[in-house]
Design a protein that fits this description.
Length: about 575
């Protein structure tokens, strides 16, 4: 074995890790977020959570990615710490699938159909089909499936390179001497843990062990402790990701580590005692890639089955290691970048936060309308606080969405990202107009003055229409109700007409000396805030409607519905014109 063999080994590892990333990204996109729907409900039952954790790990092909995602979800307050324990256990089972796929490399037969099961034989076909799908198909789903196939082919090419680079080791006396050290179970566990911790991938670590086993130099006595250690080593990623998070999120990493350490002790002690007392013959047998996959699965299934009933005890261990503090309970990260490891979860969380922003903007403006007639300093201070929160959320969401866009997401998630980015500015501007209306309420209060009875009645009627459009818009954004979103633009047109009529009447009152110029300016400012708030509602509704098609040409959409004899538009317009009128 020379320097070129080492280069080949490292290159093979690089291909393996890159192929796994490409494949996992494709799997996550093609799953279309189905595995992450109703996450909170799924994880409340430990057994369902365990199945979900296994399915999620199979989907993204990385238990480390799932663990990091859980740390982020707990840190952002989306999940309770206790809900993650079952998912963590399931991820240990799900990660064994990769070893099973790689174990097919050990098939040796003259039968052509059986030989086709060897990954190195069918992987090139996967690569060909994958590249054709990505180049020819225009559908996002087929692109994702193509990436899965290409990622798998790259992964298997890396595995083949690693196996080839290790073939000379079988004839090296130095390697044989080194392997004798592996026969010590404690040392085997440490080697497995350290190596896996360094490369931060248990799947890659198991793959290297399988590649080594092809040389015939790895025995059951060596492999079993190393496999146990690999499960401990994979906790390093979660430990690193827990730096800088709140205490509940740190507990996720503690549970992951304690679960794998306890699982190793549960299996290692009987293994060592049995080896001494019964002198098991199989200990000295050479292990194959298939048997490594079997041992890996058995170990993870046994430890999960034994420890799953003790979820509460594992939770207590984490609570003992990481003590809660009062100030830490108050600190919740709204959008944690750790959730970006699974984009669909990140999009779901970002949308939930945007819905909160939507409701906050609506509440702020509705409260500002009340303050015009019943102004209080506490109410005004609350509006200012709402505005600060809206500004903060706008910056937070936009930054988070930009980072998410660079990762690459499924087509449906891409539409939701566009919908979020096209609406957060409107939510923030509604908050600005709430502040403007509040200032007018303060001015009227401080000067102990009020609008004329006629102007007050007109404002009340227009305010009712604005309240209606805010309620319709917020509900359509929250639920994605397209029919409801379609009602916004007709109402916006009605509000525009009401405001135009109110301004004309105000001019007549000015000319008749019924209203002062000072109050006229205040009335004009209120009407402008009403009008622009309705316009922002229109923009939001268009984003909800256009998100379905992935197009966001607001001007073209509005032109089409107003000028192409749209019956639905006219029907709703007539309905709202009758409901909200200044002539009653």
């Amino acid at each position: 074995m020379d320097i070129f063999s080492i280069i080949t080994l490292l290159g093979g590892l690089a291909f393996f890790l890159y192929g796994m990333k490409v494949m996992s990204d494709g799997l996550e996109k093609s799953s279309n977020g189905k595995l992450t729907a109703n996450l909170n409900k799924i994880t409340k039952n430990r057994y369902v959570a365990m199945i979900f954790g296994a399915a999620m790990t199979i989907a993204v092909q990385s238990s480390s990615a799932v663990t990091v995602m859980l740390v982020g979800l707990v840190n952002s307050g989306l999940l309770e710490f206790g809900q993650t324990i079952g998912v963590l256990m399931g991820s240990n089972v799900g990660t064994t699938l990769t070893a099973w796929i790689l174990s097919l490399a050990g098939i040796d037969s003259d039968i052509i159909w059986l030989n086709l099961l060897k990954p190195k034989n069918f992987a090139p076909l996967f690569a060909l089909v994958g590249i054709v799908m990505t180049m020819i198909s225009k559908k996002e789903k087929f692109h994702s499936i193509g990436n899965v196939l290409m990622g798998f082919a790259i992964l298997m090419f890396g595995m083949e390179l690693m196996s080839t680079s290790m073939e000379p080791l079988a004839d090296m006396p130095e390697f044989q001497n080194l392997l004798t050290a592996f026969s010590n179970p404690i040392l085997g566990v440490l080697i497995g843990a350290v190596f896996t911790g360094v490369i931060q991938s248990s799947a890659a670590s198991v793959a290297i062990l399988q590649a080594l086993s092809i040389s015939g130099g790895i025995t059951y006595g060596m492999a079993i402790p190393i496999i146990m250690g690999q499960n401990i080593g994979t906790c390093v990623t979660a430990i690193i990701s827990s730096i800088g998070v709140n205490r509940n999120a740190k507990k996720v990493a503690v549970v992951h580590l304690s679960f794998n350490i306890l699982g190793t002790l549960i299996c290692l002690i009987p293994f060592c005692v049995g080896s001494v007392l019964f002198d098991w013959a199989f200990i000295s047998w050479s292990i194959t890639p298939v048997m490594i996959a079997i041992v890996h699965s058995i170990f993870n299934i046994i430890t999960t089955a034994i420890l799953l009933p003790f979820v509460k005890q594992l939770e207590k261990i984490a609570n003992f290691v990481i003590r809660d503090k009062d100030e830490d309970k108050k600190r919740v990260v709204i959008l944690d970048e750790r959730t970006l490891s699974v984009p669909t979860v990140a999009v779901n969380k970002a949308f939930d936060v945007t819905v909160d922003m939507c409701m906050l903007a609506k509440t702020s403006f509705l409260n500002s309308i009340s303050l015009m007639n019943d102004y209080t300093e506490d109410g005004a201070a609350e509006i200012d606080e709402f505005e600060r929160k809206l500004d903060m959320l706008q910056d937070l969401i936009s930054t988070y969405m930009m980072k998410l866009s660079k990762i690459g997401v499924a087509e449906e998630d891409s539409k939701r990202i566009a919908k979020i980015l096209h609406t957060i500015d409107d939510f923030e501007r509604i908050g600005d107009h709430a502040v403007s209306v509040t200032k007018i309420g303060k001015e009227l209060h401080d000067k102990k003055t009020a609008f004329s009875p006629e102007a007050s009645k007109e404002l009340e009627k227009i305010a009712d229409a604005v309240k209606e459009i805010l309620n319709i818009t917020s509900e359509s954004f929250k639920t994605g109700d397209l029919q409801l979103a379609g009602c916004v633009e007709p109402l916006d047109k009605v509000i525009d007409n009401l405001i135009l009529k109110a301004k004309r009447r105000h001019i007549k009152r000015l000319q008749g000396g019924v209203c002062t110029k000072e109050l006229g300016f205040a009335l004009s400012d209120v009407l402008t805030s009403f009008e622009r708030t309705a316009d922002h509602c229109s923009n939001i509704a268009v984003a909800v409607l256009e998100a379905q098609n992935g197009t966001f040409d607001t001007h073209e959409y509005l032109h089409d519905i107003k000028h192409k004899n749209n019956e639905q538009f006219m029907e709703k317009y007539d309905e709202y014109s009758e409901k909200f009128t200044l002539d009653v």
